[in-house]
Amino acid sequence: MMPHIKNLLGDKPLLLIAIFYTCFISVLFFIPSQDLPKVQFSALDKIVHSLIYFILVNLWMLYLYIKNDFQFNNKWILILLLSALLYGIIIEILQGLLTISRSADIFDVAANFIGSLIGIFFFKNIKNKLKT
């Protein structure tokens, strides 16, 4: 059954989706805050950050998983986790330096990292279902 999934999905469309999503969220993170809906519940912002990174990590993990013939190496998971963390830190620094209406927030970095960790644990628990 695995070859059917690989033939159906392939790795190039997944790579394009992962790249597109990464670029899309990069743009979203630089939209001026006055153009965003006002949120009264501040924890909602952290939940949104976690969800964005949950999706980001799962897209990249799915791509890597299929590209590597449904095998996962802990080295790739660590590289992906560190890459997501570094990406989140860079985005926050750039928000603080390049935008007027946004600021760098260490709690956003923490929420991003938590979303990434949850994404990795989620994917590791469902990956075997992709084989069937």
Automatic annotation (TrEMBL):
Signal peptide: none
Superkingdom classification of source: Bacteria
UniProt domain VanZ-like: residue ranges: 44-124
The entry's keywords: Membrane, Transmembrane, Transmembrane helix
InterPro entries: VanZ-like
Transmembrane segment boundaries: 12-31, 47-66, 78-100, 106-123
NCBIfam families with a match to the protein in the record: vanZ_1
Name of the protein described by the UniProt record: VanZ-like domain-containing protein
Lineage start: Bacteria, Pseudomonadati, Bacteroidota, Flavobacteriia, Flavobacteriales
